[in-house]
Amino acid sequence: MASLTFYGGAGEIGGNKILLEDEGTRVYLDFGQSFDFGEDYFYEYLQPRSANGLECYFEFGLVPEVPKLYSKQMLRFTSLPYEKPDIDAVFITHHHSDHTGHLSFLDEDIPVYMGHCTHKILEVYKELYRGLGDIGEHSNLNTFKSGDEIPIKHLTFRPVHVEHSTPGAYGYIIDSPDGSIVFTGDFRRHGPMKELTEDFINEAAKSKPYCMVCEGTRMTPDPEKQYTEEQVYEKVLGIIEDSNGMVFGEFSMCNIDRFKSFYRAAIESGRKLVIDTKYAYILDSLKDKLGLPDVRTDENLKVYYRLSKTCQFCETDYYKYEREYMKNMITYKELKKNPKNYVMHTNFNKLMELIYLRPEKAEYIYSSSEHFLEGEDNKDQREVRDNWLKHFGITLHKAHCSGHAGKSDLEYAIKKINPEILIPIHTQNPEEFEKIYENVRIPAKGGMIKV
Hints:
Elements: E1 3-8, E2 17-22, E3 25-31, H1 55-59, E4 89-91, H2 97-100, E5 112-115, H3 116-128, E6 141-144, E7 150-152, E8 155-161, E9 170-176, E10 179-183, H4 194-206, E11 211-215, H5 229-242, E12 247-250, H6 256-268, E13 272-276, H7 277-290, E14 301-304, H8 320-323, E15 329-330, H9 332-337, E16 342-346, H10 354-357, E17 363-366, H11 370-374, H12 379-391, E18 395-398, H13 407-417, E19 421-425, E20 448-450
Parallel strand pairs: 3-4, 4-5, 5-6, 10-11, 11-19, 12-16, 12-17, 13-14, 13-16, 14-15, 17-18
Antiparallel strand pairs: 1-2, 1-20, 2-3, 7-8, 8-9, 9-10
Helix pairs in contact: 3-7, 5-6
């Protein structure tokens, strides 16, 4: 009999750490960090000493004290003795930190599996942002594509692509002599690549699983409006076409569908999309895998260079990777002269550029996480942003759709796959699943469910 132990992801959104055990085979499904990780004990500059490994995390019960799992380096200042690992593999669904954030704690000899694109994104982020995307050292890191079959002892893991708010996301069908377990990862079916999720649902249904572990981020008690990516594009296009000044768009750098929506809307309205050098590097690194425009030559893209060092926009002012895109350079000077010709990607950390751009009659389209726009935790940061927009007379708009399946799509997927047992994770409302399906088992954090 197989069992699942939920060290994270039970009764919370994110932080997936699920141990699957079956006849001596031990595999983790994701190894992420919760969104509220450490907020009760750490604040701003009050943070654990990185050199001390898991010392503080164990002290406050933030990471489970599981033997034969963590690296010798991470255990140096803890009471948990180092032992060689007994974990056969860790399978990652996608690159978001709530699924990969604690990989750096693991023993480097534990085999880790992830999609090709996930690995590439993590490498790019590690290169651009210190600490972000750093998954630690792994001597046995393996990449796969949809349709591969990966044997782990008597189990076979079949990754199948799904649509999410980032490329390279997967769900898993796990086959054993006793039957199959389905693990959805994070998914949606209301974007331009919804057929990927349909592929996964069909393959999962064919496996006739005895257990399905399903994300439920948007499984809420109340009905929720389901916006599509096409509706986001249409709203963005309308705002741009009605604007008499520059338009700013805030969205996640790895939400490639959202990039394409803004890119398409900019072109349709006769404007160019402006991105910074970091974003240029990300798009350049992923263009072959995802069919993205060439940031060096595309006439509909411009690469924004900030003032630096000499304030003369000299090649030596910028990092080596930034110099690659200087033939497609634009600066605040050109943007100030012709603001109606451009849509500019931005975020909270780039508000300083408004001092140089000094836009008039500008629009700011917030097109990222609802949590930031509406969550109480981000109140202070949100007020600062709003103060900047008010100071420059910039109008704020919202145009966003979630990277997660809505209630009706979750019900569709569950009933089509039709598992014997349904286990909801990655949700704050697991009891809502009981309203749409009969045999639901709700996990507790740290608890085990035998299937």
